[in-house]
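Sequence in, structure out.
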Amino acid sequence: MAPILSPATSGAALSGLAADHPAHHPMMTLSLVLQHCDNCVSAILAEATSLHMQLVIHKTMVIHVLSGERKIIRLEARHEDERAACHKNSCRIFMKTTNNYSEVRGSPAELLPGFVKRLNDSIPDKTENVVFSEMPNAGGEFRSIRSIWETSSLSAGEFADQVAEYYGYTRITLPELMAAPALVERFSRRFLRETMMFPFDCGGGRFGLAVADPTDIAAQRGAQIVLRGPIMIAVASFEEIAEVLSARLGREEEGSGAASAGPASGAAEESVDRLRDLASGAPVVRAVNDLLEKAIDLRASDIHIEPMRNALNVRMRVDGLLRTVPAPADALPQALISRIKILAGLNIAERRLPQDGAARLEVASQDVDIRVATMPTQHGESAVIRLLPRDRGLLDLPKLGLGTDDERKIRRLLDLPHGMIVITGPTGSGKTTTLATMLSVLNTPFRKILTIEDPVEYEIAGVNQSQVKPAIGLTFAAALRAFVRQDPDVIMVGEIRDAETANIAIHAALTGHLVLTTLHTETAVAAVPRLLDLGVEGFLLRSTLRGVIGQRLARALCDRCKTQKRLTEADILADPRHETYGLSIGESVWEPRGCERCGGVGYRGRVGVFEALEVGGEVRNLVGSGVDANALDEAGRRAGLTTMMDDAIAKCRRGVTSVAEVLRVTTAR
């Protein structure tokens, strides 16, 4: 900070500055803090005129001094105390000079071509992305800072850094904006959103104005008039200002209620248009594409995007477990969700209700089907994206991980001409993959196969597959009724969810069709009481149910880094379930270690854990109303049932999976 100068000496200081920094010198930025009165401004004006310089004073109190060579010297002025009376030589001027080595020519709006040139010159590694081959308007010129940003490939934050440095303003970040006391209540919401400005209180009677486009002098003048005081200009990115305005104005709109239908409708339309513009911007499009490509690289099955109070959580489900990944730094949560909704054909204006959609995309040179489900939460909409690569090959039965006995049982079941085969397990346990593999075994030219699924995850040549559409009445039950008139040999129902579907499936099995379906139950034997609970008659179930397959998915140990160890007494004492599962001290098992191939996790891929129950003999006699699940389980074991726990322990001893995974996915019984 230079010494305090009076109005009389301020002109001399200006003269000295002009002499020290001739026209060819890089731009100098002057930050003036003055107790404003007309005498001060008149003194500076007179001195500028004598130096053959043009002085432009805006009502915002931002003063631009342009030399004859059109080099710019910027002076920022603000009141120290508006109430103080100004006497002769009593106005204080603080002068501070800062070098800015940018070639700046003309008024702020006229500096846009120079700004583009700076971007190309200062970022050589991004030249191809920053050079603008097509100008936004017919004259071959850029009309605004926004038009430059939208045409460039810089992120919003990087672009704002360049703007702040080039125009000589302070750079303000999103956390600082969120923490600042907002003054948005003094302005029209539409004005703030159209001009992309955020007014805030700096304390001491001073005001701040965060802008994305510092060349919009008219908007700054308007803010000065409304605030009735000096303002400090700071630069933020378009997305940062959009985020802070959404946070502050959104809360006000919730609290104010619907004062009138007209303004509410206009605000809603404005918000939707703004979201659509943000979602179509290059940074948001890149962010969504990067997320999808990362998910494909990690072999993720789902992407979870969850807005929190002060952050955005992004997690990917890899091998059955969620893994946190860095959230896109250059995309607003609302814009990110809107982009995903646009891809899935959802209504971006509806943010109060859950929505489901689908799309087919090309990601990392792969064709991928995605299923999108959104859900409104406390801090905004969350979204889950299910990834279904179309090039997934169908598995053979041995590759599912079936034991020798279980594979033999399933092949016997598939050879039956009619009846019902049920696959049980929780969501994400691989039931659909098992069903598709079984269909591939049944898929021969002399069989007609019809399926009704939600969604169609595997496309199988030669199989007539249908997708449920509840909105038009195409449900599982409606499709089943139509199927029996299509002369099929095999019917696959994606899931039995209600009594109507269960009864139609049972009757289809009675009329000479082989019916494959799934249920959500804990074990294979639990499917019997579950179907009885859905209203299926005991004698009908006894006549049609041929087999039940229970399954889970356990993470498979990485072949490159898995290590062998012997269980110690400490291991057994740490978790008594070891003894329940038949594991004893000194027994050899395998555990994960982590390497580059598995990403340091120790696991790569998943393997199925199965139990196959054939319904016949003693087991069939127990099927009926009032069935005891424990008695049914004991009868199944006597008939040769290998439980999921037994199958998992066998895979653990062979080094396919670890003890920790066995304990995680199975329960002792």
